[in-house]
UniProtKB/TrEMBL annotation:
Its main location: membrane. Keywords: Membrane, Transmembrane, Transmembrane helix. The chain crosses the membrane at residues 54-77, 89-109. GO terms for molecular function: phosphatidylinositol bisphosphate binding; transmembrane transporter binding. This is PIRT protein. It is found in: Membrane. GO terms for cellular component: plasma membrane. It is a multi-pass membrane protein.
């Protein structure tokens, strides 16, 4: 025999009564949404918009330079030459990958910003004509 689940206040409730409980799903969904709402027109600074790709580009450039140093060490230091020859290109490729991903991310954000501005303009235009 299955025991019905207990509610937070400790009383027993049937599965049918759980469905009848009203929820704040719509308001919670709007508040916890990761994307910007069309209705908010708060302007964001350039740093708020581009901080993630800038960080990815900087980390990628640092790892790429570290890979260059490690690779060049294999030419100058005969000791542990095989280790330098293996690790250097790995850091080079990882750094280059992050660098390119960050550099591609920036135009994508710019395009989304333009689309968002167009969308907000169309929303205001639509509300102007239909809310009369």
């Amino acid at each position: 025999m299955e025991i019905p689940p207990k509610s937070p206040d400790g009383s027993l409730k049937s599965p049918q009564s759980k469905e009848l409980i009203t929820s704040n799903t719509a308001s919670t969904l709007c508040m916890s949404s990761r994307s910007e709402s069309v209705w908010t027109s708060a302007s964001r600074s350039k740093w708020d918009i581009y901080h993630k790709p800038v960080i990815v580009v900087s980390v990628g450039a640092a790892i790429f330079l570290f890979g260059m140093v490690i690779t060049s060490l294999s030419c100058f230091l005969p000791k542990n030459k095989n280790v330098y020859k293996m690790c250097g290109p790995a850091f080079l490729s990882l750094g280059l990958m992050l660098l390119v991903c960050g550099l591609v991310w920036i135009p994508i954000i710019r395009k989304k910003q333009k689309q968002r501005q167009k969308s907000q303009f169309l929303q205001s235009l639509k509300s102007f004509f239909f809310n009369r």
